[in-house]
Amino acid sequence: MKPWMNKSLSFGILGLFLVALGNALCFLWPTVFHQILQKELALSPTSRSFELWKDTSSLPPMYMKIYLYNWTNPEELNVKKMHFTQVGPYYFREIRQKDNITFNHENKTVSYVQRRTWYFDEKLSNGSLTDVVTNLDIVVVTAVHKIRYWDHDWQKSLSFLLSSTSRRYYISKTVDELLFSGYTDSLVTMSKIMPVEDVPTYDRVGWFYMRNGSDMDGRLNMETGEDDISQLGIIRKWNYRDTTRFFKIPCNTIEGSAGEFWPPNREKTDITLFSVDICRPITYEYEGTVSHLGVEGYRYTIDKKTLGNDTRRRYPHEQAKFFEPTTTTEDFFVSEHLSEMGFTTTTESVPDNDRSSEKSSSEYSDDDPDVVNTGHCYCGGECTPSGLINVTACRFGAPVFISLPHFYKADPILLDPIEGLTPSDKDHGFTITLEPMTGIPLEVSARFQINVLMQPSEIVTLLNNVPKVYVPMFWFELKVQVTEEMASNLRKLLALPIVMLSVGITIIIIGLGLIGTVAFLYFRKKRQTPATDATSEKAVDESSDKKTEMVYMDKTNSNEDANVRGDRRLYAKLY
Ligand SMILES: *[C@@H]1O[C@H](CO)[C@@H](O)[C@H](O)[C@H]1NC(C)=O
Ligand SMILES: *[C@@H]1O[C@H](CO)[C@@H](O)[C@H](O)[C@H]1NC(C)=O
Ligand SMILES: *[C@@H]1O[C@H](CO)[C@@H](O)[C@H](O)[C@H]1NC(C)=O
Ligand SMILES: *[C@@H]1O[C@H](CO)[C@@H](O)[C@H](O)[C@H]1NC(C)=O
Ligand SMILES: *[C@@H]1O[C@H](CO)[C@@H](O)[C@H](O)[C@H]1NC(C)=O
Ligand SMILES: *[C@@H]1O[C@H](CO)[C@@H](O)[C@H](O)[C@H]1NC(C)=O
Fold first, then answer.
1. Of 551 and 45, the one with more pLDDT
2. If you average pLDDT over every residue of the chain, what do you get?
3. Helices 533-543 and 564-574: angle between axes, nearest 10 degrees
4. Nearest listed ligand to the Cα of residue 65
5. C-alpha–C-alpha distance, residues 249 and 426, integer Å
6. Which SS3 state, helix, strand or coil, does residue 150 take?
7. What distance in Å separates the CA atoms of residue 117 and residue 121, rounded to the nearest whole number?
8. Whether the CB of 383 sits within 6 Å of ligand 5
9. Closest to 82 in 3D by CA, of 474, 475, 466
């Protein structure tokens, strides 16, 4: 063999190798990439996300901003509209820690207790914790609400008690008392000796009283995504149960993400989150694609499906058995469930007219047994105007209702009796933006407003003449965004598949070029005298119009064991 042959042979082999490598990069890389991604995203004691999930204190600070509503004209209740000014924001740095973490490999879940701790940040805040704010007296309103179905005498004695202590329907307290440190109240102290069921054992009143650093979020059981990454982050159990006792079947189902992990490969469909604060799942609807620090994300937002009082939803068939219209399983399950929990079985059955109003539905077919009016199954009797979420059952019977801040996206009648609220999308929506390929949250703006229902009572003198109003108490915002550094890493990661594809294609082209050149030179050498090696190479370059290139491609694609006759034809074309 001539030395020339050796050289060209090794070039040919190199070319083949490059073609194979390029193909592998193009076709195998996406699979490999997704496998790496799945492995990286799943939660395990050794995964990258574990430490940050366990304790968020090393992350960039996350703040809960609270705005309180100050009722400035409580004396003029029946004369003028209720007027509110928004005070704050008061900034609280939020740290989340997970305790008692147990990984259950047999069912690919992790069980944990979440603790949230808040630290007031005076510098960022617009005001101090000693600011005095006036608003509805929730103790009076709750007490009257709780005993409104009791017999007349009980209600009369409460009425007398309130008058004799010259209670008002409003109260002025400092921000700290209203939120974290709480305040004592004679009615609360008294309720300890009264036969009021389901009263919390607190001695003070405050929206976050005893919540700071406590384990009151309960014990959660969440999917780790170990075998099936599409399950990552889904809550399976809350306090050892897969249902809550707060809403009717099937709305008592525990479902949705815990909000910290979202599986990769997001689609433009609804996503669901389970909120322990309001004891129910919340649906976010796909709103659009947005760009956050140069990373594209899908934006999901709270809308009609959660806020409406008439929303239909199809439950999967295995859940549908719980509310088959032909049987009484519904009541059976409710009562069984309650007695298990140690409650007496005085459950309200679902009235028939629930079903008839369901039939007016447009989105779903009339007699689909799987379709449930979730609006009705969440409101537990009386329903609210749209835009409110009734959390009375989950708040110890206090008439508390959640909405978006400033009653954004709610029925405008809620704004009629009050002044000072100005809903806007930018400031008052609740949105989650996820990077679709990895499911990593790019931005979360969690915002809720807490309202209390004030309604007239015929028997309790203090509330004889008050109007029925959903009174806004305060609202909060928890905003988390990826930092520029995280975004830049994410951009690199997301560019990787395209980079790999381009590299793969380039390598294939180089490989093909090598094989082609070697083959060309080989056959030229075989046919002609070795005189014009250099010039012929040049000729290829110069005359390399599209035709030549196509011929090269044809040849390499067609056969590995270079067909001699085919290459002769190549010569014919070149010369
Ligand atoms: C709330 O309103 C009252 C009465 O209008 C006022 O005295 C008080 O300063 C206000 N509180 C804050 C924090 O602005
Ligand atoms: C701070 O509070 C004052 C009075 O409550 C209000 O007028 C002002 O707009 C607030 N500033 C910010 C940045 O929210
Ligand atoms: C919450 O508790 C921590 C200590 O456990 C304390 O330092 C912090 O001030 C508390 N936050 C509030 C708002 O009371
Ligand atoms: C998974 O297993 C653990 C431990 O046995 C158990 O506590 C948990 O409830 C199980 N979760 C589910 C969803 O079955
Ligand atoms: C809110 O829910 C409670 C308990 O589920 C129910 O008794 C009450 O009637 C509801 N209130 C409204 C206004 O929907
Ligand atoms: C449901 O909401 C709509 C719009 O806010 C309201 O008109 C209707 O009265 C509500 N339904 C019930 C049963 O309260």
1. 45
2. 78
3. 70
4. 2
5. 35
6. coil
7. 13
8. yes
9. 466
Ligand 2: which of 126, 128, 175, 474 to mutate, most ligand atoms within 8 Å of CB? 126
Per-residue CA distances from 43 to 235, 272, 407 (Å): 13, 19, 37
CA–CA separation, 469 and 170 (whole Å) = 14
Indicate which ligand has the atom closest to the C-alpha of 220: 4
CA distance 398 to 376: 20
> Do residues 312 and 354 touch, judged by C-beta distance below 8 A?
no
Residues 85 and 78: their CA atoms lie apart, in Å, by 19
Q: Residues 6 or more apart from 488 whose CB is under 8 A from it? A: 293
Rounded Cα–Cα distance for residues 499 and 33 (Å): 12
Return the number of other C-beta atoms located less than 10 Å from residue 293's C-beta. Answer: 17
Give the confidence band of 570 by pLDDT, cuts at 50, 70, 90. very low
pLDDT tens track for 245-297 = 888 777 788 888 988 899 888 888 889 999 988 888 899 999 999 998 888 89
Compute the average pLDDT of residues 40-52: 86
CB-CB contact of 435 with 471 (8 Å): no
* CA nearest neighbour of 77 among 455, 482, 545, 541: 455
**Ligand located closest to 128 CA:** 1
Residue to mutate (ligand 1; options 66, 71, 133; most atoms within 8 A of CB):
133
Contacts of 381 (CB under 8 A, 6+ apart): 348
pTM to 2 decimal places: 0.79
For residues 353-379, average pLDDT = 54
Helix (H) or strand (E) run with residue 522 in it: helix 484-527
Q: Is the CB of 244 under 6 A from ligand 5?
A: no
**CB of 206 closer than 8 Å to CB of 180:** yes
Q: For residues 25 and 505, give the distance between their C-alpha atoms in angstroms, rounded to a whole number.
A: 8
Please list, in sequence order, all residues whose beta carbon lies within 8 angstroms of the beta carbon of residue 388, skipping any fewer than 6 positions away: 307, 309, 401, 402, 403, 410, 414, 451, 470
Residue 453: name the closest of 468, 431, 437, 442 by CA. 468
Tell the residue nearest (CA) to atom 4 of ligand 2: 87
Atom in ligand 2 nearest the alpha carbon of residue 85: 5
Alpha-carbon distance of 405 to 558, in angstroms, equals 67
The reply to whether ligand 1 has any atom less than 6 angstroms from the CB of 125 is: no
Ligand 3, CB within 6 Å, residue ranges: 92, 117-120, 180, 212-213
* Distance, CA of 514 to CA of 223 (rounded, Å): 51
Pocket (CB within 6 angstroms of ligand 2): 87, 126
- Helix 138-146 × helix 152-164 angle, to 10°: 160
Paired tokens of 387:
């835009």
Q: Which atom of ligand 2 is nearest to the CA of 89?
A: 14
